[in-house]
UniProtKB/TrEMBL annotation:
Keywords: FAD, Flavoprotein, Isomerase. One of its GO terms (molecular function) is UDP-galactopyranose mutase activity. InterPro entries: UDP-GALP_mutase, UDP-GalPyranose_mutase_C. Belongs to the UDP-galactopyranose/dTDP-fucopyranose mutase family. Residues 148-346 form the UDP-galactopyranose mutase C-terminal domain. It comes from the Bacteria. It comes from Octadecabacter dasysiphoniae. Pfam families: GLF, NAD_binding_8. Its cofactor is FAD. Signal peptide: none annotated. Its EC number is 5.4.99.9. This is UDP-galactopyranose mutase. Gene3D superfamilies: NAD(P)-binding Rossmann-like Domain.
Length: 388
C-alpha cells in the first residue's frame, strides 16, 4: 500500500522507525511533544562552558549487535569511549561493578581470582532460585557487599525495598573475578563525537520524513494510515485504566572550575546521601578540552502526571493494570506500540534500535502481503519477572 505512516515520538525508537520506513518509500510524519528530537538521549552544548551535556541523564551506547553498531555509525561519528563507574560507599571510593578490585579493597585483602571466588561462595547466601532483587544480591555477593553497594542505592533509585523488586534489575550488573573495571562487557561501545542529538537529526533528515516539534499526537486523532506509538502506553488510552508507575529523575546542575570528580559517573551508595549519582559530562568526551566543568546530581522519585517518565517500575500493582492496557491495545486497529514507553520495558539504547529495525521490517512485509501489523511485535509482558 505504501500509504502514509504516523509516528508518535522523535526519540531513538521513533527516529529509527521513521528512517527505515522512509527509506522503504513511505511518507512519514513524526509528532513530538517536546521542542526537540532525541527523546531522553538528547544532548546539548552547555551555553556557559561549551561542555556537551546529557540533559536527561547519562546515555552510553554499547552493544554486541554488529548490525546495530553499523546502523548508528551511519548517522554520526562515534569515538571510542569505555564507560567506567565508581561508587562512593562509607567515605571510600570503589570500582563498580563489583570486581576483584572492589572485593580486595572492601575486605582489605589481596586475594587472587580463585581465592576471591571461594570467599564469595562462602559468604554469599545459598538461595537456589532468587525471587527478588535482594535475594539475587545476597546469593550473588553476600550481605556485606549487598548492604554497602546495592541496598541504599536501590532504595533511592526505586523508592521501595529491594525485596519488592524483580531480580532482573540486578542481573544487569556483572560480578567479576578480575581487575576488568569496564561497566559494560559488550564488543562495541562509543560516544557520538557531537552527542546524540545530531545522530537522531541525521536519521530524521530525509525528504520523506516531516517532523512536527512541540506537537503531541492526540491518540485516536484522525490520522491516515498506520500509527507507531512510542509514547507511554497508558497515555495512548488517556490513562483510562490508571497510571502505570514510573520513576522520574530530578537533575541539579552546577558549574565548577577544573575537574570535579575525575570520572564521568560516581555512584553514591549510601542511603543517607539524597542523590544516586553525579555525572560529570565532560568525561564523556575525553577528546575535548574544557577549563570549566558541568556536574549533575541525579535524584529519583515517583513520577507525577507532569513529570518525564524514565524507568518503568513493573511491580505487582502495575502488572494487573498493564494487562488491561495490553488488552485495550490489542483491540485497536492500525496502531503498533514500540520502544521503552510504548511497551513499558527497561530498554537499553541498542535494544531500542534493534527492535525498531525489526518492527519496520515486519511492517513492510505485512504491508506487501496486504496485512495489518498488530499492536505489539515486542510484547510488554514477556520479560516481566515479578518478585514472588
Ligand atoms: N545498582 C546499585 N548500585 C550501583 C549500581 C546499580 O544498587 O552502584 C542497582 C540499582 O538498583 C540499579 C540497577 O542496579 O537500578 C541497575 O543498574 P544500572 O547501572 O544498569 O542502571 P541505569 O544506569 O540503567 O540507571
Amino acid at each position: 500500500m505504501r500509504g502514509p505512516v504516523t509516528i508518535a515520538g522523535a526519540g531513538l525508537s521513533g527516529a529509527v522507525l521513521a528512517r527505515e520506513l522512509a527509506d522503504a518509500g513511505y511518507d512519514v510524519t513524526v509528532y513530538e511533544a517536546r521542542d526537540h528530537v532525541a527523546g531522553n538521549c538528547y544532548t546539548e552544548r552547555h551555553a556557559e562552558t561549551g561542555v556537551l551535556v546529557h540533559r536527561y541523564g547519562p546515555h552510553i551506547f554499547h552493544t554486541d549487535d554488529a548490525e546495530v553498531w553499523d546502523y548508528v555509525n551511519r548517522f554520526g561519528a562515534f569515538r571510542p569511549y569505555a564507560h567506567r563507574v565508581w561508587s562512593k560507599a562509607g567515605g571510600t571510593v570503589f570500582p563498580m561493578p563489583i570486581s576483584l578490585a572492589t572485593i580486595n579493597q572492601f575486605f582489605g585483602s589481596d586475594m587472587g581470582p580463585d581465592a576471591a571466588r571461594d570467599f564469595i561462595d562462602e559468604t554469599s547466601e545459598d538461595i537456589a532460585a532468587p525471587h527478588n532483587f535482594e535475594e539475587q544480591a545476597l546469593s550473588m555477593v553476600g550481605r556485606a557487599l549487598y548492604e554497602a553497594f546495592f541496598e541504599g542505592y536501590t532504595r533511592k533509585q526505586w523508592g521501595c525495598a529491594p525485596r519488592d523488586l524483580p531480580a532482573a534489575i540486578l542481573k544487569r550488573l556483572p560480578l567479576r573475578f578480575s581487575y576488568d573495571d569496564g561497566y559494560f562487557a559488550h564488543r562495541f561501545q562509543g560516544m557520538p563525537e557531537e552527542g546524540y542529538t545530531p545522530v537522531i537529526e541525521a536519521m530524521l533528515n530525509h525528504p520523506r520524513i516531516a517532523v512536527r516539534l512541540s506537537t503531541p499526537l492526540n491518540p485516536g486523532h484522525d490520522v491516515d494510515g498506520h500509527v507507531f506509538w512510542s509514547g507511554a502506553i497508558d497515555a495512548y488510552f488517556y490513562h483510562s485504566e490508571g497510571r502505570l508507575g514510573y520513576r522520574t529523575l530530578d537533575f541539579e546542575n552546577e558549574v565548577r572550575a577544573g575537574d570535579y570528580q575525575g570520572c564521568a559517573v560516581m555512584n553514591y551508595a549510601d542511603g543517607a546521601v539524597p542523590y544516586t549519582r553525579i555525572t560529570e559530562h565532560k568525561h564523556f568526551a575525553p577528546w575535548e578540552a574544557h577549563e570549566q566543568t558541568v556536574i549533575t546530581r541525579e535524584m529519583a522519585r515517583a513520577c507525577g502526571p507532569d513529570d518525564v517518565p524514565y524507568y518503568p517500575i513493573r511491580l505487582a500493582t502495575e502488572k494487573a493494570m498493564l494487562h488491561r492496557y495490553i488488552a485495550a491495545a490489542k483491540a485497536t486497529r492500525n496502531v503498533t506500540f514500540v520502544g521503552r514507553l510504548g511497551t513499558y520495558r527497561y530498554l537499553d539504547m541498542d535494544v531500542c534500535v534493534r527492535e525498531a529495525i525489526d518492527v519496520a521490517e515486519k511492517f513492510i512485509n505485512a504491508d506487501l502481503a496486504d496485512q495489518r501489523l498488530g499492536a505489539f511485535i515486542h510484547a510488554p509482558i514477556d520479560p516481566l519477572t515479578l518478585p514472588a
